[in-house]
Amino acid sequence: MDIKYLPQMADKTERRYLFVAIDRATRWVYVAIKPDKTAASARDFLNELHEACPIKITKLLTDNGKEFTDRLFGSRDRRSTGEHEFDQLCSEFGIEHRLTKPRIPQTNGMVERFNGRIAEVLATRRYNSAQDLETTLLRYVWIYNEHLPQKALKHQSPMAAMEQWYSEKPDLFVKSPRNRPEPDSHVIPFFAFPPQIRRVVYTTNAIGSVNSRLRKIIKTRGHFPSDEAATKLLWLALRNITLDWGRAANDWKEAMTQFAILYGERFTKNNI
Q1: Where would a tag sit more exposed on the chain, N or C end, judged by fewer CB atoms within 10 A?
Q2: What is the CATH number of domain 2-182?
């Protein structure tokens, strides 16, 4: 579990905080935006996580922030005093609360890497309001959990991996994992897509080459008696251009796999 600062929006007088939790086995992520990073907010987030997570939470790793613990930073005695409200809730839920080693945030590297993904999402566009930002983040987390395959999960999405764990070891769960409903938004952050698809979107060399050859043909011909004549010439030019294509663009096979995973009902062999 970790906390990430969010940029302050024009319609807010203060910045807000994104609480993030990630399961090590399935990479399933749960997030919530809070107005502050107090112990009360951390406790609220843990309550929400405990309610939402299908997996039985037995261990929880956080940093040494005062919102998570009152254990003395750098002290050899890392036992809980039992007085901090976050530690108290962990005890109530039967969760072993572990702390990262002082000054070594890499110990909690998995959630740190996910926060890096969030930073990329935040940099993709400008947000009009706090609600706009929140909707985008929730949409991204939904796509991440439901659709984005992870190499560490043998190219499964976190939800697919969770369902597989449930089928094999149901005793590790408190309830059956179910796909969460899609957020009410049509916003899909660019960085929500896998790298293979992003490269297809922003790499324009291939289409640029085609356009260049079409412009050259049009410039040489100069004048067309009708739109039909121009269309026929361009069709013939495109046919000749495709004859020169000896092989697919770099990484196209990887991109096709990702398109098929995300848009299986539309991306079929007949449409390639």
Answers
A1: C
A2: 3.30.420.10
